[in-house]
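#lab-general

N.A. 3:47 PM
ok so I finally got the sequence cleaned up, no stray characters, all 399 residues accounted for. can someone with queue access submit it? mine expired

B.Y. 3:52 PM
send it over

N.A. 3:53 PM
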Amino acid sequence: MVFTFSQGLLVTRKAPELIVPERPTPREVKQISDIDDQESLRFQIPLLFFYKNDPSPSMQGRDPVKVIREAISKALVFYYPLAGRLKEGYNRKLMVECNAEGVLFIEADANFTLEQLGDDIQPPCPYLNRLIYDVPGSEGILGCPLLLIQRIHLRFNHTMCDAFGLVQFLKAIEDMARGERSPTLFPIWQRQILNARNPPQVTCIHHEYDEVNTNEVPSDNMAHKSFYFSLKGIKALRNQLPFHLKNCSTFELLLAFLWKCRTIALKLQPEEIAKVCCIVNVRGKRYKMDIPPGYYGNGRRIKFSTRGNFIVSDLRNVGLGDVDFGWGKPIYAGTAGAVAVISFFTKYQNKNGEPGILVPICLPQSAMERLQEELKGFMIQGSMEDLCNINQTQIFSKL
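B.Y. 4:20 PM
back already:
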C-alpha cells in the first residue's frame, strides 16, 4: 500500500505479519497483578521513535527490517507472554493466554527524511494517521495482539507493562539485534507481588480516590497540542517562586504551573475540585516494595474521579531515548500525544538543538484556546516579565 500525504511524500507499507517466538515457549495461562488489571489501564498506547540512519560499524549494509524482525522473534522467547492474548476470567479478571500467536509487525518505507518533517515529528504529529497503519481488529484488549510494531511506531497494551517494562523489552530486542544470546536484564513475571491481600484489608483512608459528583469534560471537539519548555524558560519560571520553594524539582515546577493554567482554562465552578495525580514508579529501594530487577509489569496506581483531573507521567528518565537497535539513538522517543487527561513529560530538542521538555495536552477546543492564552507569554519569551502576566487568575488550594 502506498500513501501520499504532503508535497509528494510517500509511505509504502507491506501487509501486516505476526512475529512469533523463535523457539517453542511454554503454553500456559498467566495471572496479571491487580495493578495491571485496573479498568483505567485497559487501553493501547502509541509511541513514536524517530531515528536518523546512522548505523554502527557492525550494522553497515544490513537491512534494519530484517535485523529487527529477527531480534523481536528472539526476544519473545524470553518475553513469551507478550506473544499471547488477554482473556477474561471470573469477575472480569484479566489473564494472559500464552499461546505464541505473536506480535504484529509492519514493514514500511518512506521517500523523505526527518529533516523534511521538521518539528512535525513532535506530538501531535499531523501525519500520524498516514505514517501509521491501524490494523483492523487490532485495537481491542481481549484476544488481540499485545504489541504492534511498525518501523517508527509501537503500540502496546497497557495492561501488560508500563513504560519501564516496555523499555526493558525494547532493550532485550536491542541485545538480540547486537548478537547477544540472552537479554542483559532477564525478565521476571511474579505479578502476584502487586496483588491485594486476600481478603483485602483497608489500613488507611485515601481521600484522593473519593468519588466526586461532577460533570465530565466533553469528549467531542477535542484539541491536541504540545508545549515546549526550554531550559531558559524553566529557569525564568523558577525565578518567580518564593524563596522557600526555589529548590523544588523541575517536574514539580512544571506540574504546578501547568495544573494551574489548565484549571483556569477549564473554567471549573468555584466549588469544584481539580485534582492532580503524578504517576510514580515504585521500583527500586525508595518505596521498599521489594520488586525484583527485571519485573516488567505495571508499577503504579491511578484513578479518574473528577473532570478537573490532571494526570502526569514523567517519561524523561524511563530510557525511551536510549533504545538503539544499531542505527543510533532516536532524535525523538515518546508518546504520540496526550491520552485523555494524561500528559507526559518527554525530553526533546527543538530545531535549534536546544534541550528542553515537551508536554502534550488534550483539552476541549475552547479550553485549549484559553490554555494557550494563559501560557502565551511564557511560551514565546520565557522571560520574568511575561511570566508575571500569567499570574492574573487566582486559584485557591484546599490542601
